[in-house]
From TrEMBL, chains A, B:
Keywords: Lyase, Pyridoxal phosphate
Protein name listed in UniProt: Threonine synthase
GO biological process: isoleucine biosynthetic process; L-serine catabolic process; L-threonine catabolic process; threonine biosynthetic process
GO molecular function: L-serine ammonia-lyase activity; threonine deaminase activity; threonine synthase activity
Domain Tryptophan synthase beta chain-like PALP: 91-395
Database matches in CDD domains: Thr-synth_1
Lineage: Bacteria, Bacillati, Actinomycetota, Actinomycetes, Kitasatosporales
N6-(pyridoxal phosphate)lysine sites (modified residues): K126
Enzyme class: lyase
Similarity-based family: Belongs to the threonine synthase family.
Signal peptide: none
Species annotation: Actinacidiphila glaucinigra
Length: 428, 428
């Protein structure tokens, strides 16, 4: 593993409250380095913490007086205390939108909120995870920031690397949406199209990282993955803080690799453990597109293992056929009394337009998946509409225009005259 | 004027500190209604205020404890005190990004900041002006929200109307960028393409508003224009608050109609009058694209009048050939010791890519215009690089992909193998 040979500049304080990497399977602990797989059992590593003890009210006040971005939660993240002073895109603290119009349409009576991550710097939740990975790369003295990506991550890595002064080299499937390709390329780093699916891209990156070529490279979602994943915890923190330091009853989360869902659950449990929110039951729901629904399929079949699928859906940002965290997602959905559900592409488009027409939020296909799944969960009695519910929109509709373009056209095109306006039947 | 006949629900408090509409030419005062031209001299109307008196420190604290959007400035806007509780997109308080990398490239030594309005809900500054116009429409009992638009405004009106429960009917030139068309249509309102330029669209809307068809319609940039324009003041407020309640030395602002520039100047003068910032000289610079540079042309020629042009530029959001506020822009640039400058389309594209590569910000063509003009102002000695400078990015690169798409492509497309990677010369 070439990255391991890079001299580590880590000190206790460089990773804030983080104390070690620990294996999710066997519990073995490792130092805070660019590692991602347990040397004992090959299980995935995650960041372990000595979280702040003491009065929750003091911690809550410290957070509330912090910056309007994820660094307000620095005391709970593997970053140095002065992280906000370093060049970074400073994502997060996006809007939690009270969605009363959508709630009426769907029959949600307990309060419905959209956590709208299209407000991030490159307009997807990926800015959160990249921000943390980048700080780890800086600490480890890595000089190239890299990733495999279904599109959103490519833009997030390109942009963050540009601002922070890293070289970047990003790998994408060759058939991505135009907007995501241009956005990934515009920041001036290397952008490499791979002839294959996302899973092929991912495999190639694992190969690269084991080769001398990869020396000094930080692959945010490979050798920096334990740090990267922690960025998703901030979604849990923000949702609860924006609700007035309270847990919601239901959260609907999209599943690509499944990492985001597992880290949101981790974040919620931390808030409870720290006394920042009152403990109560919450249900976590996973959302997939039918054309790439390995986790949903396993959930419905009552399986513990996730059988890989070949993706075929317009929701390309969720098109991971072999989701690394799939089994953990199944555990969490079952433990919390939630579910994993899927919707087809037509339902995804309908849900994007429903959200736009009711709340003025133009979501990416992934947002169509979560809103569509919410509707289906209610219709099938799997989600209690009397509960307070949060739905994630993790990306921006401008990046997946193709999904809605055929049915989102001008009502009419006319000459600039009142007669033409009347003739078009638009005079009301 | 049909809209005048609509019953007004205005009360003293519905418009907060606003006291009247007043003519910018003759000073004649009118009640706070859906009026936009002086009945005496046909000059444009603007909102006049009885701004809060008393201790600036108290007002500053009140603002700082307000929401993270434009409603924190409700005491300085023509909106009711409880405006934040109404359904609105709640734009504003976007990032002011310290742009040290760009500063180095351009030789700015006094501090350079990007006011990045791509972070607004529909990713342009138009959300600010629409938010205020919508509140006025609500107060006036209007039921259709409308506009003429070069694209950004169309999306902003469509989204805001959807969330607030208004019907919308939006008019655009028929040849807009794909992204802007889809974004305007996705919110489910009427979208009408007009065979002509933006100026043709604008003329048509003025005709519509004088016709019975327009009864009950709020054209945000026609009969609601005085309210609408005030939204741009919030850019001035935010810039100064985010600098630590301080005026910058230089601000570079794009010019379409010129309204935004005049209102930013108005906002700065209000902050000085209220004692919220210390008075000192500041210079206001206007930025145009060469292919639509009527104000820049007049500035350079020393003229007071602006001769209309037929626009031909990739910066379509600035392509207003007959800018209503052009003469006021000339006044302000000359009074403050600033300038109005223009750059050609190639320079616009170069500047978009420069900003992306240095700061990770992907700007719309309008942002390419301001950054390109900043570079030109420095090179020609018109702007002192030792001054603290703020440059506006008013929109999002995802909406004008065509501008950079031809030169923002993958470095290579390869099979997923290390050999292919090496063969492509990417192994560094």
């Amino acid at each position: 593993m070439a990255a391991q040979t890079v001299a580590s500049a880590s000190t206790d304080s460089a990773f804030g409250p983080a104390s070690a990497l620990s294996c999710r399977e066997c519990g073995e602990r490792f130092p805070l380095e660019p590692l991602f797989a347990c040397e004992a059992c090959f299980g995935p590593l995650e960041v372990a913490y000595d979280l702040p003890s003491g009065d929750p009210e003091t911690l809550r006040k410290r957070i509330e007086s912090g910056p309007n971005n994820i660094w307000r939660y620095a005391p709970l993240l593997p970053v140095p205390a002065d992280v906000a002073s370093k060049p970074n895109l400073n994502p997060g603290f996006t809007k939690l939108v009270k969605a009363d119009n959508l709630a009426r349409e769907l029959g949600v009576t307990g309060g419905l909120h959209i956590k709208d991550d299209s407000g991030n710097p490159t307009h997807s939740f990926k800015d959160r995870v990249v921000a943390i990975a980048l700080e780890a790369a800086r600490t480890f003295g890595l000089t190239t920031l890299s990733c495999s990506s279904t599109g959103n991550l490519a833009g997030a890595v390109g942009a963050a690397a540009a601002r922070a002064g890293f070289r970047s080299c990003v790998f994408i499937p060759h058939d991505l949406e135009e907007g995501k390709v241009v956005m990934a390329a515009v920041y001036g780093g290397e952008l490499v199209g791979i002839e294959g699916t996302y899973d092929d891209v991912n495999r190639f990156c694992s190969e690269l990282i084991g080769d001398p070529i990869g020396e000094g490279w930080g692959f945010v979602n490979v050798n920096l993955r334990p740090y990267y994943g922690e960025g998703s915890k901030t979604l849990a923190y923000e949702i609860c803080e924006q609700l007035g330091w309270r847990l919601p009853d239901n959260i609907v989360i999209p599943i690509a690799s499944g990492s985001q869902l597992t880290k949101i659950d981790k974040g919620l449990r931390e808030l409870i453990a720290l006394g920042l929110v009152e403990e109560k039951p919450y249900r976590i729901y996973g959302a997939q597109a039918e054309g790439c629904s390995p986790v949903s399929t396993a959930f419905k079949a009552g399986h513990d293992v996730v059988r890989p699928q070949k993706p075929n859906t317009i929701a390309k940002s969720l098109a991971i056929g072999n989701p690394a965290d799939g089994p953990y997602v199944l555990d969490i959905a079952r433990r919390t009394g939630g579910a994993v559900e899927d919707v087809n592409d037509e339902q995804v488009v309908d849900a994007i337009k429903l959200l736009a027409r009711t709340e003025g939020i133009f979501a990416e296909t992934a947002g169509g998946v979560t809103v569509g799944v919410l509707r289906k969960l209610i219709e099938t009695g799997q989600l209690d509409p009397a509960g307070e519910t949060v739905v994630l929109n993790t990306g921006d509709g401008l990046k997946t225009l193709d999904a809605v373009a055929p049915t989102s056209r001008p009502t009419a095109t006319i000459r600039p005259s009142l007669d033409a306006f009347r003739a078009a039947g638009l005079a009301g």
